[in-house]
Structure formats: C-alpha cells, structure tokens
Amino acid sequence: MLAFFTIILTVLCLDQASKFWIMHHFVLHESRVVIPDLFNLTYLTNNGAAFSLLAGQPALWRQVFFLGTATVALVCIWVAQRSYGRRSLWYTVALALIAGGAIGNMVDRFRFGFVIDFLDVYVGSSHWPAFNIADSAITVGVILFIVKNLLFDRKATEQA
Fold this sequence. Notes:
Layout: H1 2-25, E1 31-35, E2 39-46, H2 59-84, H3 89-112, E3 115-123, E4 126-127, H4 133-159
Helix pairs in contact: 1-3, 2-3, 3-4
C-alpha cells in the first residue's frame, strides 16, 4: 500500500506544481513553442471532460456530475487495488496513476470550477486536445492496466 499512496501523492504533487507554474508564468491562452511543429506549452482551461465533453452544460450540474463521477471512480480504484494490487505491483502502479490523475483534476474542479490544461501536441496545424500531467497519468495507468491484464495475465492463464 505504501507504493500505491506514494505514486498517488507523486502524481498529485507533479500535477498541481506544473499547473501552479503555468498559471503564474503564462497568461490564459498564451502559447510558447517547445519543439517546433510538435509541442507547445499553452495555458488553457477546460470546463468539460476529455475533449471538452459536456463543456456547454450548466456549471452546477457539470461540477456535481464530474466530482461525483470522480468520487465513484476513486472508490472503484480502491476496491480494485485491494484485489488486483495483491496480484502484481504493475496493477498497483496502474491504479495509483489513475487515482493520482483523477485526484489532480478533482482538485482543479474544486478550486477553480475547471481543469487547467497546458500540454499541446500537434503536427502542422493538427492539434491533439490540450491535456495535463493528471490526464497523462490516467492514460498511462489505463494502458498499463490493460497491457498487464490482457497480455501478461492472459498468457499466464493460457500456459496453466
């Protein structure tokens, strides 16, 4: 459990520190090139979920929905950790990354009513929607969980 909570705290600290830095060194919508034609730091806010999903909905409804959904997800992650975490450290890492990212974005929603995004990946004029460290942790965690579950655990089951 120490690894689980250490990873969550690390993700949360990195996420909140990076957002704090962006907020204090950029003006909203300001963009700075890091790698030409590939990557910028761009200070944006997102009232919705991934890809601005539900961004146009009333603020109170949106906040209750997102905070409620995140709370349910965190309870599910806790239950999964108690089961899957005993099987492999990879599950612990994956679930902790997901939880840390969810908490990082929840903190933004509590504090500001929106999530701060700043990582802007693009090729030419085609941009991926901006994201943050919390979003990255969630994505990496989900990928790790799926890879561990589908590839490695399935192979072990087939060999048995």
